[in-house]
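Homework help board

Subject: predicted structure for assignment chain

Our instructor gave us this sequence and asked us to write out the predicted structure in token form, then describe one feature. I got the tokens but I'm not sure how to describe them. Can anyone check?
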Amino acid sequence: MMITYHELREISPEKARELVRKVLSKQGGDVSKTARILNISRPTVRRARDGVLQDKSRRPHHCPLKTASHFEEVIVGEAKRTGFRYRRLTGYLQRKLSLKFSEDTVKAILRRNSVKKKTRKTANARRRPLYDYEALMPFQEMQLDTKHILDKDALPAEVYAHIQNYHLPLFEWNIIDVATRIRFTAYSHELSSVFATMFLTIILLWLRAHNVRGPIRIRLDNGTEFCGGSQRKLKQFNAYLHRFDASLHPIPPGAKHLQAIVENSHRADDECFLIIHAERCQSTAQFLMKAQQWQDTWNCYRPSYGIAMHGLTPQEKLNISHSGIHEHVLQFPVLLMEYVLKLLGTFTSSLKLLKTGKYVPTMCHRGEFMHRLLLIFKEITTLRIYRRMSRRSERPCAWGKTGKTCPPLPRLAPST
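My token output:
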């Protein structure tokens, strides 16, 4: 079977033009006869006779809509420095440098300059997501972890020295929702299973009071402040959390990739909060105020480019979920666990009314008890702790903005 010119052209343009030259030489240079034999046009024959064997560039000589070269250098430089891909890089350029480009433009520039995507090889060369993100409802799956701020690895040495000299909190308690990336934070000067129990209780009370009704699965590591790999402690924790319709699910030892979402948030804490603002805080009160502003920025203004987030903020993701959960859930106060312990005690003994069964939103006496306990908690922590510690008449109104004052915090109605 004889291969045609057009089939050979798809395989190798050089070989196709060599074929035209051979046929042309056999026909004594007759262009028209050569074109009829190969079933091509006469300009194609002349192109093979007079031109080079390789294809010419199809790049236009003039492109008035092309991105300016200095902007292209900025995009390529930021892509190599940050490691971001086109979608995340587009939002980064707009927020940090006020440069607005479409995602397609940034993608084309990265491809044209051969900026490769950083990938990690898997056994079957496929992505293996931790969850079915598209099917998750808000606060159905959560990840819990603690961060040792003085880990001697992520921050500059002067930041570590400042935190130690001014006796700022050393440990950060984080729990993050997988579906929306909403995050709640607390701090402490030491790790303790008492603080772990209190933190979980406060979070679950807060969620149940804001119409989170389904079961809650919490993934965590094997830290000593939680279960420490002990099945007995895990059973005790789950027996206690059963009344809130919540459960703990520790990861296997060494499988930190199963905690990837909350671990990535720790990196954002280092880069966007601690490196910049820790040295500006000379007291625990100032540190907690900055931490509150950072948490509000994370939950309401900072877009996320994780799986199924599509560049939305946690607040926007919560709104489009149509879950019936009020936006007020984002206004969780950043706490210092030592102050909560001093003012409220462990307060877990007050939950004796819930020992008869797990959390059911429609049972009036339990819902009323939770509501009363939540009002007391908000009254003491939000008003007394912040006002007594800060002793300031003005509070920053937005992340990174000063000189503006916020209205005073509203006083809650006394519980009856």
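Reply (TA_rk): Your tokens look well-formed. For the description, you could write something like this. The radius of gyration is 31 Å. That's the kind of observation they're looking for.
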